[in-house]
Amino acid sequence: MAKWTFSDAPVGMDQGPNNSTAEHFKSQDIFSALVRESIQNSLDVQLDKDKPVVVQYAFGSIDEVLGADIREIEEHVKAISADYPESSNYQRMAQFLNEHEDNEITYLRVSDYNTRGMDYEKDSKKCGFYSFVQSIGNSSKDSAGAGGSYGFGKAAYYEFSNSHSVLVSSRTPDGSTTFQGSAMLCTHKIGDKKYHWSGFFDDGNGEPIQNELHIPEKFRRHEPGSDIYLLHVNNAQEEMKNYEENIVRSVLLNFWLAIFRNKLEVLFDWQDDGQAEVRISCDTLDELMQKFFPNLSDYSDPFLGYCNPRPYYEAVKTAEPFDKNSETEQKCVCFKNDQLKHVGKVMFYLMRNEDTKDRYVRMRQRYMVIDAPSIRGQRGLSGVLVCEEGIANDTLRKAEPPAHDAWDIKRVEGFKNQPETDEGKAYKAIKALERYVRECIRDYFASNSAREVEIAELDNFLYATESFDAKNGNTRSTNGTISEGTTQDENGALTTKANGPAMVNKNPIPETLGTVTIITDDPKGEEPGGSTAPLVPPNTPTTPRPTPPQPGTNPIFPPVEPVIPGGDGPHIPQRKFMPVSFKILAKFEEDGLVYTAKIKTKEDIENAVIIISTQGEEGEEIIDLAWSQVGKIFQSSIRGVSLRSGVTNEVKFRFEDNIKHCISLVAYVTE
Questions:
Q1: Which pTM does this prediction carry?
Q2: What is the per-residue pLDDT across 183-216, written as a single tens digit (0 to 9) for each?
Q3: Is the CB of residue 383 less than 8 Å from the CB of residue 436?
Q4: CATH architecture label of 3-237
Q5: Residues of the chain with pLDDT under 50
Q6: Which of 44, 423, 428, 531 could be 342's S-S partner, Cβ–Cβ 3.0 to 4.6 Å?
Q7: Per-domain residue ranges for the chain?
C-alpha cells in the first residue's frame, strides 16, 4: 500500500515556511492562478486538434479506509505549525486539519480529457510526469506556443491545498499509467528527526506507481489524460458557491477566446458524480458572459488591471474585416497580417466602445489572456491582439514572468543587440507588435472626415501652437509676451500675469475668427467625446458620461469596476473631461528638450490628469514621458496637477526620446 515518505534533511540550507515559488503568483488571486495554470497545462498537451480540450473541476471526498494512509501528511503539517508559530499560513492549515480530523479527506480534482497525459521514464528529466511531480523549476514543454516554460506553475495547485499536497494519476494514449502523490512543505522536525521539505506518496521508494493494478481504484485513469487531486480543500456549502463563482469567473476572464473558438470546454461538478452543474462551452459562452459581466464598458484602472472580458469578447464576436474604403460605419473590425515581421501571423480586433477606457488584451496561440495594456489616448476603444502562429508564439515566453501574465520587454531588453537569441527575438516581436497596434489604430481612424470650420471669437480662448527655432532654441510667440513676474503655487505650477497698462478701445470690437480642425460624424473619423476633446472652447457643454454599474461584492475576485475605499460607501470613479485651452512651447535646456504647456481653464481644477499625445505625419504616436516639474508621470500622463482659473498655468515636461513633436493634450479629473 502507498504511504508518505520524507527523506532525512540533507546537510545544507533549510527551506523555511515562506514558499518562494508561490510568490510568482502573488499578482493573481488563488482562483486565477489555479485556473490559468491548470488549463494552459491541458491545452499544451491536446491530443485531437479537431476536438476541444475538456477540463473538469470536481469536488469530492476520500473514504476513511483509503484516506488513512493519505492522512499521514497531516502530522507533518502540524509539526511545522508548531515549529513556526509566526507563520500565519501554516497556522491556518493546521487549524483546518484539526477541525476536520474526524471527517473524510476532501479534495478538488482537476481533470483533463482529449489530452496526452504525462509520460514517465525513470531517470529521464524530459518526461512530463517528472517535470510536474518530482521537480521544481524544470519544464518539459518544448512545443511552439506552449503556455508555460519555467516549471514553477505547479505551486498554484499546492497553494490551494490545506496540506500543500496533491495526488496525480495520468494515462498516456499507449495505455501507460503513472500514479504518485507529492507534498511541498518546508524543512521540519518530528521528534528528534529532521525531514526534507518535500515528500512523496508512493510505494516508499521515491518512484511513481506504474502498475495499474497497484494504483488505488479510485485514482485509476481509464482514458488518456490526467487527474490531479488537491487534498484537504474546504468543501463547506458556502465555500462551494464561492468556488463555483470564482472559478467560472476566472475561466471567462482568461480563456474566453479558447472557448469561443471551440478549443476548450470547462466543467464544474459539485459532488464528483459526473453531473456537471456548470458547462462552459462555445454554446453556453454568450449566456455566461452576459450573466457574469453584464456591462460592456471596462473601467479597469491601470493599477487594477484587466477586470472585464465582455467588451473584448464582443469585439471578436462581431468583428468584420477592416475595409479602409468602406462607405458604411465599421464599429468593430479585424486586422489580419499573415506574416508580420518578427512575429508571424497576427490578428488585431478593434471595437469602438465609447464609455470605456482604451485597452487591448494580448494573447498567444493557446488563447490565454497574457495581459491587457492601456491604449494611450481617449478614443473609447477595446481591442484584442492574438499571435496566431509563428516565431513570436515561442520566443515571447522569454519576456513573460513565471505567472505568464505580462509581456515585459525589460526581461529581454538586454538582448536587443543579439537577434539570434530567443530573448532578442522576443524583444523584436514586442516592438513589432506595438508598432502594428499603432498602425491599425491609425488606419482605423484615417479618413477625409477632418475638416476646417470657422468659429466666431475663437481667438478669445484658444492659443496657437508655438513655432520653434531649431537654430538657437528660441520660441516665437504669436499671442503676446510672457510676464517677467511669476508666482510659485503650492502644486508647483507656474502662473503668469498680464503685463503693461490696460488698453481701452472705444470703438466696437470686430468679431474675431479662429480656425480649428474638428472631427465630423463620419464613422471612421469620429472620436467620442468630441465636445470635450483637446482644442475645444471651454464654454462648450460637457456631455454627461453614463454612470457605470456598481461593482461586485466578492472580496476575493477583483471587482469589475475599480472601487475607491473610504467614505460612507463604495464610489465608482468616473472621468470628467475638462475643457481647457493651451499652447505649447519647446526649448532645449541643459538636460534635453523641454516642453512647456501653457494652460487656461474657466474653473479651478484640483487633482487633474493631463494626457499628452504627439501628432506626426503618420498619425498619433504615444511616447512615454521622462520628467515633469509638477505632479507624477505615468506613461504619457501627468497626474495630480492643480490648475487655477484666471491665470496661465505652466506645466513643463520632457519625453523619453528627446525629439521635437507636435503636441496635443486633454485634461480630466476623476470623480
A1: 0.67
A2: 999 999 998 899 999 999 998 888 999 999 999 9
A3: no
A4: 2-Layer Sandwich (3.30)
A5: 24-25, 145, 147-151, 302, 447-572
A6: 428
A7: 3-237, 310-445, 450-542+579-670
Helices (DSSP H) in 446-562: which residue ranges? none
Pairing of strands 332-340, 320-321: parallel
How many CB atoms are closer than 10 A to CB 160?
Answer: 21
So what's the pLDDT on residue 568? 40
pLDDT at 39: 96
Nearest by Cα to 350 from 271, 272, 222, 436: 436
Calpha distance 268→260 (Å, rounded) = 18
Q: Is 180 exposed, middle or buried (0-12, 13-18, 19+ CB in 10 A)?
A: buried
The DSSP bridge pattern shows strands 264-269 and 53-62 to be: parallel
Burial class (CB in 10 A: 0-12, 13-18, 19+), 240: middle
The identity of residue 395, as a single letter, is T
Say how many Å lie between the first and final Cα of the chain, rounded.
64
Q: Which three cell numbers stand for residue 264?
A: 476548450
For residue 102, count CB atoms less than 10 angstroms from its CB and return exposed for 0-12, middle for 13-18, buried for 19 or more.
exposed
Question: Of 328, 329, 308, 332, nearest to 318 (Cα)?
Answer: 332
For residue 300, the model assigns a pLDDT of: 66
What are the cell numbers at 658?
528627446
- pLDDT at residue 460, as a whole number: 39
Separation between Cα atoms, residue 249 and residue 345, nearest integer Å:
29
At position 649, the amino acid (one-letter code) is: N
pLDDT score at 564: 34
**DSSP string over 211-224:** -GGGS-GGG--SSS
pLDDT at residue 22, as a whole number: 52
Residue 157 parent element (H or E): helix 155-159
Picking from 191, 280, 285, 270, the residue whose alpha carbon sits closest to that of residue 233 is 270
What amino acid occupies position 369? V
Cβ atoms of 301 and 562 within 8 Å: the answer is: yes
Mean pLDDT of the chain: 78
What's the pLDDT at 313? 97
Distance CA 539, CA 217 (A): 77
Cα distance between residue 187 and residue 8, in whole Å: 10
Q: Which H/E stretch holds residue 439? A: helix 422-445
Closest CA to 41 of 125, 126, 178, 143: 143
**592 DSSP assignment:** E
Query: Which H helix or E strand runs over 76?
Result: helix 73-83
Comparing C-alpha atoms, which of 628, 622, 576 is closest to residue 597? Answer: 628
